[in-house]
Design goal:
Helix 1 packs across helix 4 and helix 2 crosses helix 3. The longest helix is centred in the middle third of the chain and has 13 residues. The protein has a single domain, classed as Recoverin, domain 1 (Orthogonal Bundle), CATH 1.10.238.10. By secondary structure, it is mostly helical. Helices cover about 65% and strands about 0% of the residues. It contains four helices and no strands.
């Protein structure tokens, strides 16, 4: 599975309402899944940094940017 496929799978799993973006709550769940409880403290800062269009949601493209910066 390449990075893009991984991001798509993660996005679909955590976009609970299927609106095509991760709300702050959905994003916190994703960070908790990826980083454990330690990630909760930093999720707000990460969310603000990668919500580049400031729509209070993380789009698939924004999630790709996040994964590439923090994982790859």
């Amino acid at each position: 599975m390449n990075n893009e496929e991984l991001v798509k799978a993660l996005f679909e799993e955590f976009d609970r309402n299927g609106d095509g973006r991760l709300s702050r709550g959905e994003f916190v769940e994703l960070v908790r899944y990826l980083l454990g409880e330690h990630g909760i403290q930093t999720s707000s800062r990460i969310f603000e940094r990668f919500d580049t269009n400031h729509d209070n949601g993380i789009t698939p493209d924004e999630l790709v940017d996040l994964i590439e910066e923090y994982v790859v």
